[in-house]
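Assemble and predict.
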Amino acid sequence: MLIQYLTGAFIIVLGAVHFALLTFAGGGYDNALKFSTVVFTYTAYGLAFELLLAALTFHVFNGFRKVLTELHQGRTYERAVTWALALAGGATFLWGTRTVLVFLGVIG
Amino acid sequence: MAEGQAVGRVELKFDPKILEGLGKPLKTVTFKVYRFDPSRGEGVTYSTYQVPIFRGTTVLDALLYIKERMDPSLTIRYSCRMAVCGSCGMVVNGKEMLACKTQVEGLKSDTLVVRPMHNLPVTRDLVTDFDAFFKKHRAVLPYIIREDVDVNIDREYQQRPEEVVDYLMFANCIKCGLCYSACPTSATDEMFLGPQAMSQAFRYVADSRDDGHRQRMDVLDSPHGIWNCHFAGSCSDVCPKGVDPAFAIQQLKGLLIFRSGYLKKKRPAPNVQQKRELVPER
Amino acid sequence: MARAPKPTNRNMAGVYQGWIRFWNRNFERWLYTMHRVTGVGVGIYFVLHIWETSNAATALQLGDPAVWEGLMAFLRNPGAHAGLLLVALAAVLHSLNGVRLLVSEQGWLIGKVKRPTYPLLPSSLKGAQRPLGVALVLVSFLLTAYAFYQLFVVGLGW
């Protein structure tokens, strides 16, 4: 639960950074989504995105797990839900990391 | 439906003069009451009654009126009729309340839907089975725990008036179950401890005479324990004795995470024998 | 002593009565429902967003900006931006209420213990966390208004 709080706080800070980059970097929202701006932002702030991804993946999938285990109880059900969400979370995290690594030039 | 007509097997007649001592009825309120009888295997139905309401009529008065003059098969649980025993908890028009404490006039409605409290199995009509509720209460070890409890049984423990205030409002819990019924987590999670058990855990943790917070924290810091509370606050909203379980639970969370909060380093209160010099000589 | 027969009516309040039906109850109950709904909503958006932004990496890998620009052009319409606005509202509400929960679940801003006197009103529902809750909802709507400006006026040229 402590991790849920900490990742939440982390997400607010890094999310604000992400939002600020989107709104103000590159001269406004309409420019922010141009391919050249996107490439520049990701290469410069790749690490920040990666940290935001890690925090968000944990917070989101742990949140889903809480909602689902409150809906129904039982040892098999809870274990199944935890594993399914851990796998889904892992997949999401890996796919997002792939995006960051491509931009940082590590894979590609 | 005329007064005196029964829903059920018995025809009742009474002399209307009996009612004269109550004054003039202010209005007639329609009561739709939840009926469930497991021995009949029919499922849940709602019976409708027209009840005259006088000045000061409580929901309990109205239900007893129905039971005495219309339908003796209506099953309710009540005892003290003054909000100290915690027997008559029920849900009226969607909100939990003690039937003996709630004035029908105060509800400002001409139709009242009365159903038993949520999240506890229904034994019959408005009566619920409190077994699971008490089991969870016992699970948080609701008694003073300290190492020297067998050693000094003939001496009282010291406690200053300020230390009593620390836990007094939580000690007022009458175990009526209204908070457990109102809690959104208890609505779907049968294994959740419930606001009553957790507020009583806090009542003992906050008591300066107690030294058992470690054992209780282990019970609370478990799956389906304290972390499934999300501070919806409805428990405190419906509590008839102002116990404020939401407050207790958030304080416990603070203690669990950072071991801080308004209870700093605790020591169990010494007993009078150990601190004889503080007892005034007569 | 005879025991009552084993009950057959579990009588759980369920999702509608327990999670959804907040209108007849206290303000914090509304914040609870809202926190849950926005959390699930933003969570689903998050997964979709990770897929969406991975197209930019694909565009870089293939050396073809059109993969990305095409997707952006496809999404540059009032419907998609309205969806994004809802996501923005949900994210802000969830974040700010999360801060409120973080604070009050440490035992702060929830009033004080006091000797019980009539009327027996709960102090946690009168503590500073309630005006904080009202304030955060208002701030969320203000920030969403700003998001509307960015999404529609700047983004779509309204």
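Chain A is about 85% helix and 0% strand.
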